[in-house]
Amino acid sequence: MSLTLATVTPGEPEIFASLQGEGASMGKPCTFIRLSRCNLACEWCDTAYTWHFEGDNRPHRSADTVSRAANQVKLSEEDAAQRIRDLGQDRLIITGGEPMLQAPALARMLALLPGMVVEVETNGSVAPHPALDPLIHQYNVSPKLAHSGNPASIALIPERLDQWAKEPRAWLKFVVASEADALEALALAETHAISRHKIMLMGEGVDSETLSQREAWLAPFCIQHKLTMSKRLHIDLFGDSRGT
């Protein structure tokens, strides 16, 4: 049994120690494991190497596709768990891609990591799996708004949003590039009764200059609407690079 992971370099799985760069746990030391494959295709995705493989015609702001062989690797659940243990952190961030597509394998891997605090970063379109769900301490849910380019019919599934609104372990983090995006997020919160204390707004961008420009209007917007603003700490610290 195995997991399908993204790579840092060809053949080397993307498992690394760093600081959590976004959301409610921003700044906490942790280990990341980045899985490959996604059911959505965001036009601005900063990890398109997890899904935008040669032959994939889904749109992305970069027209370039990548080699699946160089950017995807299989790893046994036991090997993945050992690599995570070897990094010595007590918090694990499972990211992607869309991790929930590999939920049964993740559940088997986490069974080998007792005592680990586990966060899952998900686009929110896939329901929690019964084998994995009891092992998760925090869901970092990032529903994809219209500017992502994904049809709402697959990205903003009403029953999923209703479920996340009621899930006490879930934070909902909306990526925004304009005030129109932020207003769309507020409208979704109203429709699905998402408490504002669970909502975070985060600027879209892969460089510090772009993020600063967007945070300049996003900060007063969050103050006005009593929302939490998330930075992208890892971009400021390490730039847009793998394994950070």
TrEMBL record:
InterPro entries linked to this entry: 7-CO-7-deazaguanine_synth-like, Aldolase_TIM, rSAM, rSAM_sf
Entry keywords, A to Z: 4Fe-4S, Iron, Iron-sulfur, Lyase, Magnesium, Metal-binding, Queuosine biosynthesis, S-adenosyl-L-methionine
Keyword Iron included in the entry's annotation: yes
GO terms, biological process: tRNA queuosine(34) biosynthetic process
GO terms of molecular function: 4 iron, 4 sulfur cluster binding; carbon-nitrogen lyase activity; magnesium ion binding; S-adenosyl-L-methionine binding
Top-level enzyme category: lyase
Pathway(s) served: Purine metabolism; 7-cyano-7-deazaguanine biosynthesis
Amino acids binding substrate: 19-21, 34, 95
Catalyzed chemical reaction(s): 6-carboxy-5,6,7,8-tetrahydropterin + H(+) = 7-carboxy-7-carbaguanine + NH4(+)
Pfam families: Radical_SAM
Binding locations of [4Fe-4S] cluster: 38, 42, 45
Cofactor field: [4Fe-4S] cluster; Mg(2+); S-adenosyl-L-methionine
Xref: PANTHER family: 7-CARBOXY-7-DEAZAGUANINE SYNTHASE
Family assignment from sequence similarity: Belongs to the radical SAM superfamily. 7-carboxy-7-deazaguanine synthase family.
Protein name: 7-carboxy-7-deazaguanine synthase
Species: Altericroceibacterium endophyticum
Organism placement in taxonomy: Bacteria, Pseudomonadati, Pseudomonadota, Alphaproteobacteria, Sphingomonadales
